[in-house]
Write a structure and sequence with these properties.
Distance between the termini of chain B: 42 Å
Helix content of chain B: 55-70%
Number of strands of chain B: 0
Number of strands of chain A: 7
Structural class of chain A: alpha/beta
Number of helices of chain B: 5
Oligomer: heterodimer
Shape of chain B: globular
Number of domains of chain A: 1
Number of domains of chain B: 1
Order of helices and strands of chain A: HEHEHEHHEEEHEHHHHHHHHH
Distance between the termini of chain A: 27 Å
Strand content of chain B: under 5%
């Protein structure tokens, strides 16, 4: 962290701190990806799960620049709750990049694992009448609005359109999340199938917000051989996407989890405030910038930015488990020597 | 109040503190600052309180002022129990008035 000297006048803070030199960054990323994939991982290309969102699109685009479009393979994996738009946009990207790809419908696999049944059983612990024809999503309260803890709520819509919102018990919440996590884990299994048959590495697609705050499923979308945009803030991913020529429809699409049957933004599921604001708060915190400086630059109350700083700390701590590799009791020297 | 604090403290130690750290943990220590309890932990604490003391917890009561230390939780539980007794007693008085009016 780069600390700010408290005796100095506080510098101005604005969204400009996140502006990128995209040309230079692209050259650096291309070199780094070639070094990682070809030299360190010793694979001849990259597999990327494509969701039609900005992160996977930028990851695919930069990998295609680094490794060549004939060394990148896209996998689209819709399931019963996926929006049709996700597949359409992902296919638009593969055409635009000129990369090979395939569509793997994972709904039958999820059905066989009991993903949907287990999820619905867990939802019924909170809302007993939930059943066929109902839709659901999990949401968080906006942390800028109050000092209330970020606890999860379940929102459901009945077949007649009636909406209900209830605070989740830990049993219901964990049950719903455990069941829906099958989706990310099955997708990753499919990505590794294609990576193995092609002798490719799997590229992970988290941006900095997701990586730092644990917005991923361990051994699901959190699993990968390399993560080329994990150090970039979300708004920087958009800048890079624009520079790399990612289709405008993808750049304009609001980020979505595309995991629940009711439409759900990432901010209502996890980040609890608009992504551009979260970027600035995360940047401010990472650079030791006092909350009042960030608040002034963003036009927010200092108290609100303090709340976001506290939430970032809390998430860093509580999601550490997700980022840890399997822990050993003793160092295995002969393995470490090869790394 | 003392018994309440002991019960809450025991629950926190059993569920969130492991090993020797219990001896360094005071009833006024902030869970957040100590990094002891995350949002899942708060949910667990709330469910413990709801079940053990049979008190409802409203959304707007889920704030650090009520849940961020052993003493704050004990104080919150006590205030809810007092409010519940007061409501019950008021209800009884109204009932008596109603019946008394005959």
């Amino acid at each position: 962290m780069e600390a700010v000297d408290a005796r100095e006048p506080l510098p101005a803070f604005s969204s400009r701190v996140l502006e990128l030199d995209c040309e230079r960054l692209t050259v650096e990323l291309e070199q780094a990806i070639r070094d990682i994939v070809l030299r360190r991982l010793r694979r001849r290309g990259a597999v990327i799960g494509l969701s039609g969102g900005i992160d996977s699109s930028v990851t695919a685009a930069i990998c295609a620049r680094a490794l060549g479009d004939n060394h990148v393979f896209g996998v689209m994996m819709p399931e019963s709750d996926s929006s049709d738009e996700s597949l359409d946009l992902a296919q638009m990207l593969t055409k635009s990049l000129g990369i090979s790809s395939t569509v793997e419908n994972i709904a039958p696999t999820l059905e066989a694992l009991g993903c949907y049944q287990r999820r619905d059983d867990a939802i019924r612990k909170a809302i007993s009448e939930y059943g066929p024809g109902w839709k659901s999503k999990i949401v968080l309260p906006n942390v800028l609005d109050s000092s209330q803890y970020s606890l999860f709520y379940l929102v459901v819509q009945s077949p007649s359109g009636e909406m209900k919102r209830v605070r989740l018990t830990s049993e219901a919440y964990l049950g719903i999340v455990a069941a829906t996590n099958f989706k990310q884990r099955v997708r990753k299994t499919m990505e590794y199938y294609h990576a193995d048959r092609l002798w490719y590495a799997v590229a992970g697609t988290p941006n900095r917000q997701e990586y730092a705050q644990g917005f991923f499923v361990k051994n699901g979308d959190g699993s990968a051989d390399f993560k080329p945009i994990a150090h970039l803030y979300k708004t920087q991913v958009y800048q890079l996407g624009r520079y790399l020529g990612v289709p405008e429809d993808i750049l304009r699409r609001p980020p979505t989890t595309d995991t629940y049957s009711l439409e759900q933004s990432q901010e209502e599921f996890y980040f609890a405030l608009p992504l551009d604001q979260m970027d600035l708060c995360l940047y401010g915190k990472n650079h030791g910038i006092p909350p009042q400086v960030v608040a002034e630059g963003m036009g927010l109350a200092t108290e609100k930015v303090q709340r976001v700083y506290a939430m970032i700390d809390s998430k860093l701590r509580s999601t550490q488990y997700l980022r840890l590799p399997p822990l050993l009791i003793e160092t295995v020297n002969e393995v470490d020597a090869t790394q | 109040m003392q018994q309440l604090e002991q019960e809450v403290r025991q629950f926190v130690i059993e569920n969130f503190i492991f090993g020797d750290e219990a001896s360094d943990f005071s009833d006024d220590d902030s869970f957040l600052e100590k990094g002891l309890v995350d949002s899942m932990g708060i949910l667990t604490l709330m469910e413990f309180v709801k079940e053990k003391y049979s008190i409802p917890v409203e959304d707007e009561e889920l704030i650090p002022d009520n849940w961020d230390s052993v003493r704050k939780i004990a104080s919150f539980v006590q205030s809810k129990q007092s409010a519940s007794v007061a409501t019950f007693s008021t209800r009884n008085e109204s009932t008596e008035e109603l019946y008394g009016g005959r």
